[in-house]
Amino acid sequence: xxxxxxxxxxxxxxxxxxxxxxxxxxxxxxxxxxxxxxxxxxxxxxxxxxxxxxxxxxxxxxxxxxxxxxxxxxxxxxxxxxxxxxxxxxxxxxxxxxxxxxxxxxxxxxxxxxxxxxxx
Length: 120
Fold this sequence. Notes:
By secondary structure, the protein is α+β, with helices and mostly antiparallel strands.
């Protein structure tokens, strides 16, 4: 399940929906859809900050998408959440009694022997 990345602007706790990168050689700021991975030289912005973005004088802003909206959870996110809940709800196998000893193993199969304390 993907984690929700927050807006890079200080004191903003909104979810990021766009990624801002700079092309310094061309004096260009590129604002596009949220990148799959957070990069150290890019900035994630929420919809509000993406819409209000301005560039320094002499720079050009390239917007790859006209509007940025939070897409919400995807079907993959919901499936991952359901799988996590299902796994957490599974019954755990009880620990083997202390009177059982493993004598051999082949792959996932084990041979167990019951220790009999009354065999004296």
